[in-house]
Specification:
With about 400 residues, the protein is mainly alpha-helical. It is about 50% helix and about 10% strand. α6 runs antiparallel to α16 and α16 packs across α17.
């Protein structure tokens, strides 16, 4: 059998096909916005720990065996030891023996600080139920048939701020507005339907802003004035016809209505962003075009398209000031506090690990003992910076998955 050099793997595609793929990828190109790129990385950072948090919340005792998490590790696309992962976040998770004493298994649960923040997040979600009702009503009003497939909506529920049990939270409380139907009797054909059209729900963010400012509804450009060509194209687009509400069927200017539709969908999300590939699953429901990516790239004044870590995302520019959201939902504030605690825990773990590694090297004679304590501190800080970067590169492929 021929020996294949692992350093030079055989190309998966022929040269003409690779050229075609590169041309296709070029369609996603957009000048990078460092501020929005930072915002995207910050919002996606702690997906794995959020999934572990949800596993604990589903447990009545809010504790689980570590070996249970190890079995779930493959579904989280993680490798290695689950216990090692938990130890990386000492501010968030703690391990302890089986509370019942029946087994010798090691269990894990929230720390006191983490439990307090989780309770705060749950309180924020409960307080935002009226807003969730409004968002769900608007989504159904935007859809072509005034109904959405539950399985498909679940793919984007996090983006719109819906918890796992949103159907049980919202539908029974508002039977005048929502109902669950299943026209075909299969599990994956369950739909949530808008019972009655509400004109108050059928008002877009652009129209609300225009009414507030006493103006005619129109799009706004969020690019600097130095982008003269983009501004010129935007003004031509904005002035060629009046604003078209996405809640109204209009065949006069399909492009303008599609831009209004995507703008409204992004306005309804907590982080003013959506995965383009997931959004394309709703082409029929929201009347989106086949070449949605091209349309978004034609409107850089309104949208920012990022391919950070090969996850194609569209961001509503006006929703951000620099890398910060202009308006933060209380649920977003609660989740950011959880993210800060996770970061603190990871930093604490890394700091201890670097000190131990430095001590081992000293004992082996690889590093001379220094009398100057300031020099010692600098060594620890340098190692901390390098290994933190290596660790992030190793785990971000999972952490940046928008699930």
């Amino acid at each position: 059998m021929a020996c294949i050099n692992p350093s030079f793997p055989k190309p998966l595609f022929s040269a003409p096909l690779r050229h075609h793929l590169r041309r296709g990828m070029a369609l996603w190109s957009m000048k990078k916005d460092p501020s929005l790129e930072r915002a995207l990385s910050r919002n996606r950072r702690w997906i794995v720990n959020n999934q572990i948090k949800h596993l604990l919340l589903r447990s009545p005792t809010r504790s689980l065996p570590v070996k249970f998490l190890q079995k779930k590790y493959k579904t989280l696309d993680m490798r290695g030891s689950a216990l090692n992962w938990l130890n990386k976040y000492p501010c968030c998770f703690q391990t302890f023996p089986d509370p019942s004493g029946e087994t010798e298994d090691l269990f894990f649960g929230f720390t006191k600080r983490m439990a307090e923040l989780v309770e705060g997040e749950e309180a924020a979600i409960e307080a935002s139920e009226p807003d969730m009702v409004t968002r769900l009503g608007k989504l159904l009003s935007l859809s072509r048939d005034r109904r959405l497939n539950v399985a498909k909506l679940n793919v984007l529920k996090r983006s719109f701020g819906f918890p796992d049990d949103y159907l049980f939270r919202l539908v029974p409380k508002r039977p005048d507005l929502f109902r669950v139907i299943n026209r075909y009797g299969r599990h994956n054909t369950m739909e949530i339907e808008l019972v009655e059209w509400d004109p108050q729900l059928a008002t877009s963010a652009v129209e609300l802003s225009a009414t507030k400012n006493g103006q005619e509804p129109h799009f706004t450009c969020s690019l600097p004035s130095s982008w003269m060509q983009s501004h010129k194209r935007f003004e031509e687009f904005n002035s060629r016809s009046p604003y078209i509400s996405p809640y109204v069927s209009n065949q006069m200017d399909e492009e303008k209505r599609t831009v209004a539709m995507v703008h409204e969908l992004l306005s309804l999300t907590l982080w003013k962003k959506l995965s383009i590939l997931k959004l394309e699953h709703f082409k029929r429901e929201f009347g989106l075009p086949e070449q949605l990516n091209r349309l978004l790239l034609h409107h850089p004044c309104i949208f920012y398209v990022s391919n950070r870590y090969k996850i194609y995302t569209v961001v509503l520019r006006e929703g951000y000031y620099g890398s910060d959201l202009v308006e933060k939902d209380p649920v977003v504030v609660a989740k950011e506090r959880l993210g800060e605690l996770m970061q603190e825990g990871l930093h604490e773990y890394n700091q201890r690990r670097k000190v131990l590694n430095l001590e081992k090297k000293r004992k082996r004679g690889e590093i001379e003992l220094r009398k100057n304590s300031q020099e010692e501190t600098n060594d620890v800080a340098t190692l901390d910076k390098v290994e933190r970067r290596e660790e992030r590169e190793r785990f971000y492929k999972v952490l940046f998955d928008d699930r």
